[in-house]
Amino acid sequence: MTIQEQYDLLEKTVRGYNPAADFERIKAAFQFADDAHKDQKRKSGEPYIIHPLAVAQIVAEELRLDSESIEAALLHDVIEDTPATYEQVAKLFSPTVADLVEGVSKLTRIQYATKEDEQMENLRKMLIAMSKDIRVILIKVSDRLHNMRTMEYQSPAKQKQKSLETMEIYAPIAHRLGMQRIKWELEDLSLKYLDPVGFEEITSQLEEKRGEYERFMRRTQIQIDERLNELKIEHIVYGRMKHPYSIYRKMFNQNKSLEEIFDLFAFRVIVESLGDCYNVLGVIHDIYKPILGRFKDYIGTPKPNGYQSLHTTVMGTDGIPFEVQIRTREMHEIAEYGVAAHWKYKQNGQGAGTEGRYEWVRRLLENQEGADAEEYIHSLKVDMFADEVFVFTPNGDVQNLPAGATPIDFAYAIHSAVGNHMVGAKVNNRIVTLDHSLKNGDIVEIMTSKAARGPSRDWLKIARSSEARSKIRQWFKKERREENIVNGRASFEAELKHCGLTMKDVTDPELLPGLLKKVAYPTLDDMYAAIGYGGFSAQKAVSRMQGEINRAIRQHHLEQQAAEAAAQQREEPRPAAPKRVKSEQGIIVEGLDNCLVKFSKCCTPVPGDEIVGFITRGYGVSVHRSDCPNAAPEKRTDQADRWIKVSWGRDTNENYPTTLEVICKDRQGLLLDISAALSTTNTFVLGINSRSTHDEFAIFRLEVRIRDSGQLETLMRKLNQISGVLQVTRPAG
Ligand code: MN
Q1: What percent of the chain has pLDDT over 90?
Q2: Ligand 1 centroid distance, CA of 49 (Å)
Q3: Which residues contact 428 (CB under 8 A, 6 or more apart)?
Q4: What is the pLDDT of residues 113-145, one digit of tens each?
Q5: Which are the contacts of 359, defined by CB distance < 8 A and separation ≥ 6?
Q6: Mean pLDDT, to the nearest integer, of 280-298?
Q7: How far is the CA of 132 from the centre of ligand 1 (A)?
Q8: Which residues neighbour 370 within 8 Å (Cβ) at sequence distance 6 or greater?
Q9: In the chain, N or C terminus with fewer CB closer than 10 Å?
Q10: What is the C-alpha to C-alpha distance for residues 203 and 258, in angstroms, rounded to an integer?
Q11: pLDDT tens, 57-106?
Q12: CA–CA distance from 212 to each of 204, 205, 206, 387 (Å)?
C-alpha cells in the first residue's frame, strides 16, 4: 500500500463513522507531518510517515475518535522528533491538538524500568494522570500498538524492553479503559518477544489443529444460528479462539495442556435487547449441556471496568466444552472499545444506562449535560487522579503523593531519615526551593547531609501529606531531644554561672525536687530539652530557681556555723558574755550572723515571749515560743544539734503577726465589742474569722500584728473583760 493509499484509507475510515469530521485539517495534519518527518526513516527502511498514519488508522478504526484526535495522531511525533514546535502546531491546527501532541510526547519521554507490582500500578496511574485529556492516553496506546506490531525490526534488547513495558503498563491501561481487543493484541505481541518459545508452542499447536477447530466452530455456529432464527431472535453469532496470551497464562499458571483448557473456544451472541440475552441463555442451555458452576451474570454484576455479558460454559456435541458470551450490541461495543464506545453512545444520545459502571467517566458525563457532543469531547478530561501527583525517584521508582506535594513530602515518603537529613532538593536536575510544588513525571532528588540541622517548624506548613507532617512532629518530639538536652543544658549552665551559681547547687538531692517544682518539669532533662528547643528560657529557669538556691546556700553556711557554734557551746558550756550580733527581724541567733529567720506559724511568737530556735533544712532558723508543743523538751532532745538559742534583739518592730483565739457565749453585738477592744489597744487587724458551735458558743480567731508581749497582754485583758467572753488564748501547735 502506498502512502497515499494509506491516507485515503484513513479518510475513508473516518468518513465511515464521522462524516462531519474536518477533512481539510486532517489532510493538513498529514501533509505537515509528512513534511516534518521527510528525512526520517523507520527501522524497516520505510518512510517515517507510515507510523503516524498507522497510528491515526488505529485511532479511527479501533476507537473512532474525533477529528482532533486523528490530527493529533498524525502529528504525535513531530514535537518530539522534528524541529516543529508546540506553537507551530497550535497555530496551524489548534491549541487542543497541540496539547494532545505535547501530552503524547510527555508520555514518550518517561523512562520505565520494571518494578514490583505496586510500582507498576503507580506508573499506570501516573500515565493516566499525566494524560489529563483522555484522548492523550488513547493515542499513546494506539502508538504503542503500532510499535508492537512492527517490533520485528528492533534489536532483541529493545524488543524485550518494550514488550515488558507493554505487558506491564499499556495492556493493563487498555484493560482498565475497557479496550479488550487492543489489550489482547498488545498481550499477544508482547508474549511473542518475552517468551518466544512459549508463544511458538501455543501458536503451533493451534495451527496444527486449525482445521479441526475451524470445522467445530463452523458447526456450532450454525447450530446456534439456526435455533435462534427459528425462534425469531435477532442476533449475530460468531466463534473465536481464546487468544494466545490467555491460553499461555492458563497453561503455565494452572499447568494445563491445551486440551484441558475449558474455554479455548468462545462464541458470542449479540442481540438487540437485555431480555433477549436471557432468552438466548435459555436456548443455549437447551441445546447444550451446561457445565455446573460456570455461569456468570456480568449483566447483573458488571466487572469493575464496566464489562457486561452473560457467560456460560457448555459441553458441545463432540464433547468439546466451549464458552458462550451473550450481550447486547451496546455491551459489546463497550467490551471491545471501552471508553471510546461511551463517547460514541453519548454522541448519538443513546446508551445512558450502562456508563454508570465507569464511575469516573460517568462523573465527567454528568458535568457535560446539555453541552453538544463536540464541545463535550473537548472538555473531557481525566480527573481520575486529580488529587494525586506521581513523581520519580532518581532510580525510577514512582512515589504517589497528594496533589501540591513538595520535596519535603517526597523526602519523608522515602524515609523519615531522608527527610530529617534533607538540605535541599533537585527537580529534573535543577535545584528548587523546598516549597516547590511537584508535577506528574518530575524526577525528584533529595540532597541530604549528615550535618543537616533537621526539619524546621516551617516545614509543617509546607508539607502536604499527613505522613510528612507527623514524621516532622515526631522528630521535634523525639529525635531532637538528645540534641535539645545538650544545647539546653549548655545554656542553662552558662546562665547559672552568670548568676554566680553552679550545677552542684542545682543537683543537690535535697534541693532538686523543690527546684523542679518551681520550673514545673518532671526532670532536669525535660527542662533542658524545653530550653534547647526554645519552649523555655534558661534565664527564666535560673531566676525561678535562684531564690531556692540562695536559701540553700545560706542554709549551708548556717549549718556549718551552727555546727561550729554547737561545738563551741559544748566546749565552753556558758560563755560569759554572748557575742553581740546583729539581729535579723529582731531576733538574735546566738553565735550567728545574717541568718535567715522566720517565725513559726504554730505559735507566732511576739517580742517578749520566751523563744527558742530550730535550724530547718533550707529555710533558716525557725523561731518558736518555748512553750510551743513543737518545741517541747522531748522534741528538743531529738535533734539536739538543730536547736539553738535565740533571743529578741533591740531592733524589733511593730509587725509581728500572731493569733488569738477567743471563745464566748454567742450574743448580738459581740463582734462590735471585740472590734472596740482591738481599736482601743491600737491593734492592727489582719483578719477575723468566726464560727458558731452548735451549743450557742462562738469561737473567734483574730489575726493581728503586735509590737510586743506587753501590747499583747493588754489586748488579751481587754478581750477577757467583754461580757460573754469565756477564754482568750494564744493557740500553739
Ligand atoms: Mn510514535
Answers
A1: 25
A2: 10
A3: 442, 443
A4: 656 666 666 677 667 666 667 788 889 999 999
A5: none
A6: 87
A7: 19
A8: none
A9: N
A10: 11
A11: 999 988 888 899 999 999 999 998 899 999 999 999 999 899 999 989 88
A12: 14, 12, 10, 54
Task: Transcribe 431-478 into DSSP letters.
Answer: EE-TTPPP-TT-BEEEEE-TT-----HHHHHH--SHHHHHHHHHIIII
Closest CA to 80 of 119, 114, 106, 55: 106
Residues, CB within 5 angstroms of ligand 1 (ion): 77, 143
Active site residues: 80-81
Tabulate helix, strand, coil % of the chain (nearest 5).
55, 15, 30
Q: Which three cell numbers stand for residue 230?
A: 427459528
Strands lying side by side in the sheet with 684-692? 684-692, 697-706, 656-665, 725-729
Query: 30 alpha carbon to ligand 1 midpoint, in Å?
Result: 14
Q: Cell 528538743 belongs to which residue? A: 636
Q: 270 CA to middle of ligand 1, Å?
A: 35
pLDDT computed for residue 374 by the predictor: 37
DSSP output for 617-660? SSS-EEEEETT-GGG-HHHHHHTGGGEE-EEE-S---S-EEEEE
Distance (angstroms) between ligand 1 centre and the Cα of 48 equals: 10
Alpha helices in 572-632 (DSSP H): none
* Model confidence pTM above 0.90: no
Determine the distance separating the centroid of ligand 1 and the alpha carbon of 193, expressed in angstroms. Answer: 20
For residue 449, pLDDT over 60 is answered with yes
Residue with cell 506528574: 440
Strand-strand pairing, 621-625 and 646-648: unpaired
Grid coordinates representing 114?
Answer: 520494571
Check pLDDT > 80 for residue 318.
no
Sheet holding 444-448, edge to edge: 430-432, 422-427, 444-448
What does the alpha-carbon distance between residue 70 and residue 33 come to, in Å, rounded to a whole number? 12
For ligand 1, the distance from its centroid to the CA atom of residue 22, given in whole angstroms, is: 23
At residue 340 the predicted structure's pLDDT band, cuts being 50, 70 and 90, is: low
Cell numbers that stand for 401 in this block: 503523593
CA of 652 to the centre of ligand 1 (A): 106
Distance between Cα 76 and ligand 1 center (Å): 6
pLDDT (mean) for 305-328: 86
Under 8 Å between Cβ of 125 and 110: no
277 within 8 A of 240, measured Cβ to Cβ: no
166 DSSP 8-state letter: I
Cα–ligand 1 centroid distance for 147 (angstroms): 7
Task: Kindly give the distance from the C-alpha atom of residue 78 to the centroid of ligand 1, in angstroms, as a whole number.
Answer: 9
189 or 316, which is more confident: 189
CA 327, CA 235: separation in Å to the nearest integer? 10
Q: Are 360 and 256 in contact (CB under 8 A)?
A: no
Closest CA to 333 of 314, 358, 308, 296: 308
Reported as a single tens digit per residue, the pLDDT across 10-44 is: 999 999 888 888 999 999 999 999 999 998 999 88
Highest mean pLDDT among 230-239, 553-562, 615-624: 230-239
Positions of E strands within 154-301: 235-241, 265-271, 289-290, 296-297
Q: How far is the CA of 72 from the centre of ligand 1 (A)?
A: 11
Residue 424: how many CB atoms within 10 A of its CB?
15
58, 142 contact by CB (below 8 A):
yes
